[in-house]
Amino acid sequence: MIKKILKILGGLLLVVVLLASAFFVHVWYFKPYDINLFFGRTALQFALQSPETLSSVRVLEQFGLDGHNAELDDASLAAGDRTLEQMLKAHETLLSYTDEDLEPADKMSKDVMLSLLDIMVEGQRFRFHNYPVNQLFGVQNGFPSFMESTHQIDDVGDAEDYLSRLSKVGVKFDQVLEGLRHRENLGILPPQFVVTKVLEEMNGFINTPAEDNILFTALASKMDEAKLGAEDQQTIATEAKQLIEQSVYPAYQKLIDYFVQLDNKVDSNHGVWNLPDGDAYYALTLRFFTTTDYTPDYIHDFGLAEVDRIQAEILGILEQEGWEVSGGFTSSIDNMAISPRFYYSDTDEGREQILADYKTMLVDIEKQMGSHFHDLPQATMDVQRIPEFKEKTAPGAYYQRPAMDGSRPGVFFANLYDIKATPKYGMKTLAYHEGIPGHHYQLAIQQELEDMPFFRKMIPFTAYSEGWALYAERVAYEMGMLPDPYDNIGRLQAELFRAVRLVVDTGIHAKRWSRERAIDYMQANTGMAESDVISEIERYFVMPGQATAYKVGMTKILELRQRAQQALGDRFDIKDFHRVVLNNGSVPLNILEQLVDQYIAEATG
Length: 605
Hints:
With about 600 residues, this protein is an all-alpha fold. Helix content is about 65%, strand content about 0%. The protein has helices spanning about 1-30, 35-50, 50-55, 75-95, 105-120, 140-150, 155-165, 170-185, 190-205, 215-225, 230-260, 280-290, 295-320, 330-335, 350-365, 425-435, 440-450, 455-460, 460-480, 485-510, 515-525, 530-540, 550-570, 575-580, 590-605, and strands at about 380-385, 395-400, 410-415.
């Protein structure tokens, strides 16, 4: 009798498995009947192509799936072809879902995905219009940064996965070289300064003894924190040293050799107007990053007007504080900036104090969040120094989102290379931008949203995310977190910096400004340290259009807030407005406008 029951149950189980398999096959290879299944399938298909992304988000580990942690992304041209084909198919399938058949939330998700896929389809002809190895990012610094900050080690198996990834560096670098040579054949060469700085960075990397290299020291630190056995640590460390010397360094040398010969072929620094069909490419980058149809001329002129407005406000504060301002903005801000009282000591102790003070600032503001926000993220955050091997060419700061499984906090990375680039009066604003309530709130809340397609928890729209972070600086000021007039100057300088970006980005890529002209303009109009100015200008050369998104996004959020305030009057609640902006994830600015208009209609109806 028992055998008969087991046989029946076994048969039922087989039917269930077959039905599930048939369902999976249908969903995976054909158009899913439900658009949410399509969203999930598309996100999974793209994610499965990137083991490094899977290691970063850490959603599969909870199901015992961790094979990806031993692999690196495929950077070959063939892999790029497959991704493009997959994107085109996803775009075609998405368009086949009719709006009338969708629930409002699903219609919005469709619009969000379409806004990204539409421009990617349009921009496929510019697929190689970029510089995948440059002074800011690329495999040469991205790989060691990824291994140091993202590859987690909890046991011996994780450490062996680390070794596996070290062993595959040669393949990954060869794939990148394939793409670089293809771009060279198409006439797409980087600015000259990119070659110089990449060579300096890579030569410094391989001239470091293996046991002092970040790939080795990070591994040792991770194994120690995981409390692996001494014998296991020694065995793994020995193999890691060998792999760095015999696999990693030779891979870097091949990339160095390529850039050495490339150095003889590039002798100027031009914006992307110099690339084939460069003006059309730049127009597309502006649309992609700002999610608007603003022209280069409109953005340039708006930037110039905002520079004048913000500078006048800064001069007004300086005059109130007793500074001589008759010489104009540049001399006035320079006079303030050279005062020693605004800087930490140029020592290891001074840099440690900067990190400690950043942490204190973030703890202090987090205690006040309830006055302006209904919803606070569960994920915690930390402040760390940008790894020293890349800080010379890295931006002033950046944020890394937390792992989805809670195993890694969000991290605000601060650049401490040039102590003069970290004046005390600018620190609070930077902390609020990168941390709370800036990127950490926006990205952590987005990841933690329930009943939201996975792709919307991950998708980036720069105008939204960077616009929010710049807006967050303003919110912190409105909360009373910048009572010192000099801290408010720091906030205004940060906004001024983003207004200047509108001018120089369009200047470089549309108006054909030289590198030197752009540096001179930014230095004269921001009061920033020269090292920061050079890094920023060179950033805009390799990331055309991206720098315009900050101010454009902030301006739109403020415009929508004012619209809501005028429509709702006394019924306006800043916490409700922030819930609308944050609790729908990252969206294009036109969709954000729809959300705010819907909120106004519901509140007045």
